[in-house]
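FORM 7B: Structural annotation worksheet

SECTION A. Query
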Amino acid sequence: MAVQPQVIQLRTSPHFHKAVTVQTIMLNVVYAMLPVCAWSVFQFGVSALALLLTTTAASVLTEHLICVFTKKETSVTDYSVVISGMLLGLTLPPGFPLWMAAVGGVVGIVMGKAIFGGIGFNCFNPALVGRAFLQASFTVAITTWTPANAPGRFFEFIPSTLAFPFTTPAAVDDWVAALHVDGWSGATPLAAFKFGGEMPPILDTFTGMTAGSLGETSSIIILICGLYLAARKFLDWRLPAGMLGAAFITSGIFWLMDMEQYPSPVFMLFTGGLMLGAWFMASDMVASPVTPLGVWIYSGLMGFLTIIIRLKGGLPEGVMYAILLGNAVSPIIDNMTQPRIYGAIRQKKVAK
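SECTION B. Predicted structure
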């Protein structure tokens, strides 16, 4: 009587204990980002809505066309590209021209994702790749800010939003002057402090009642949405905790050395794009290390670099560069922090 051979299935890690797909994780991230986007639209009106829709649509369309041209099944249904498009929009000023935003979406997906092989293979955060390209290409437009809660923001666009391609965007100074906004300085809180030594009330930085990119609005809303993802175990809580903790400690050291020259760590923690970067960009599963020690080193490095760039660099903000540099060294950190295999004996150096 013939004996039927038994088939043993060998599977590589990670070994999930429950059915959680990439689509489920990404869709929950989209849900978590919706309140942040909604608040930015409330703060800046139809221009913010148009900007978010443009970056998302450009990113989704680009990835779909790449899949068509390479004869692969479309990957837009996993929602990762939707997250990239939304994040790119949140890193841009409210009045950023829509055609420039569309270019950023295309570049971010092509150069930050598709060129590496798609989802699971990208070394850098695609949204930040697109943002870095826009900052290098359109410096004036990406540093032009408009006030939050402007009258009529739900019924009219910021003049620069609908600028034609390759034309000089309409100046917003006259538009802002016509609004009669009291106390408007034309700078973000970080820029106002770095170049003018001024700081807005801390409460304004919590609620987002200041100028800045769409994702520099309410730190409290970003924190709540990030905690939701951590509670659902859709991100590693050590990544935002390490980045925010390192930023707080680093800025605190500078502040204790000279309280007149440097801002408080609380101010540094809740201004700029630090909250958005820590919870929704640094926590990228693909670009971050997988070892426990590597996660702490990686996140701590990004928090440290953010503060160093802010305080000692030529730019008021350093989150984008800190995360991209962290992405670049992530494989090295992972390689250096691999735990010893159980039962293995460390090799001794052979004397010459």
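SECTION C. Observations
The radius of gyration is 22 Å. Residues 290 and 315 are 31 Å apart (CA to CA).

SECTION D. Sign-off
Analyst initials: ____
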